[in-house]
Amino acid sequence: MFQALFQISKTPMLLVSTSREMLVANTAFQRLVRRSDAELIGAKVDTVLDCPKLDVAFSDASAIGGWIPLRVQVHQEVGDVSLDAQICCLRRHGHTDTFCVTASPASRSRVAFRRLREELSDARAIAAAEMSERAQLTETNRRLREFAMRAAHDIRGPLAHISHALSLQRRTGDDAEKRAQLLGMAEQSARNLSDLVSNLLAYSETTSQVLETKPVALDGLVQELALTLGGDALEPGWLEAEGLATVMCDPTQVRMIFLNLIGNAVKYRHPGRPLRVVVEGRRSGPTYTASISDNGLGFSPDIAEQIFEPFVRGRSEETGSGIGLATCREFAHNHGWTLSAHGEQERGARFDIAIPVTSLVQ
Predict the structure, then answer these.
(1) Which is the most buried residue in 60, 63, 236, 323, by most CB within 10 A?
(2) Which top CATH class is 2-106?
(3) Are 103 and 88 in contact (CB under 8 A)?
(4) Which stretches in the chain have pLDDT values below 50?
(5) What are the residue boundaries of the structural domains of the chain, listed by start?
(6) What is the C-alpha to C-alpha distance for residues 352 and 288, in angstroms, rounded to an integer?
(7) Are 327 and 256 in contact (CB under 8 A)?
(8) Quick one: how far is CA 298 from the chain centroid?
């Protein structure tokens, strides 16, 4: 009697074993999925009903004992068809023995609602992306304004010195020594201005350069720079290197990073003690960190982030363009690396370059 009622039922029904094999499908189900009884029986249910939550629905039906609704897809020659399905477990002697699956074509209203929900989700994602881009653009414009203001301030200084020197030169009369001194001041200011413009141009190109990567042994690079930067004023062994890896990088940009960081350690060494610089590498999880630390003059921890901004100098008595560390950070960013600073006044500084281990040459 049950089999007869099962077969003549107008509701598409399918019986599934606990191992997810299809046991029997009534005529209505076969018509719905356009497959014969022979194609269905013995096959896994997920070969006909496609749904990422299918296993979870069967587990929930077994645990709860009621009907579990879900949306499934049936792959047909004419295209995928969406079905509204329900799963219920049939128990015998207190144990789950078989599952009953019913299915029906998804109603137009449900399909339309689902599409509307998907479109709404897509619209929200697009809006979030646009808001993120707008925020990035706002931040970029802010930094450009600050950059322009600082550039104008630094350019105005040498120009003012040149103007002042020339103005005084016109009033010196026949004092040749005084005139030569003023002209020398003007020439020096002009050279400072030329250096500043050159540094500005170099900094502006850091974000547009195309990387040409190749293996670079950091130990060899550091030893080369030690010979370049060392002099009679530095004691032998002033620089130590250990644990340095070989990385895939742009040799020119990475050389500039280490040249600036080690060069700053030499430039701002403490007058009361011999200079010691340690360049070491260490690996922690997915990150390899190359650190450059020194026992020099250091800087206040409060400006550890500000010193990477263009035209910001770590010490008020510094000379130079104030673009070196900004360029280093841009070069690191070009590689997908991060550059951070740590320091204490009169006790030295440390710069950490965090490199993904995927950039290491094994």
Answers:
(1) 323
(2) alpha beta
(3) no
(4) 316
(5) 2-106, 120-204, 214-359
(6) 10
(7) yes
(8) 29
Give 264-318 pLDDT, tens digit per residue.
999 899 999 999 999 999 999 999 999 999 999 999 999 999 888 876 666 545 5
Looking up tokens 């170099």 gives 202
- CB contact set of 232 (below 8 Å; sequence gap of 6+): none
Please give the structure tokens belonging to residue 294: 């020194």
* Domain spanning 120-204: CATH 1.10.3470: no
Task: From 25, 1, 31, select the one nearest 13 (Cα to Cα).
Answer: 25
- Within a 10 A sphere around the Cβ of 161, how many other Cβ atoms? 17
Residue 171, SS3 per DSSP: coil
Give the DSSP per-residue string, 2-41: HHHHHHH-SS-EEEEETTSBEEEE-HHHHHHHT--HHHHT
- 118 — alpha (psi -120 to 50), left (phi > 0) or beta? alpha
Tokens of 224: 């080369």
Q: Following CA atoms 130, 133, 137, 140 in sequence, which dihedral angle do they give, to the nearest 10 degrees? A: 170
Residue 252 and residue 249: Cα distance in Å, rounded?
9
DSSP state of 72: E
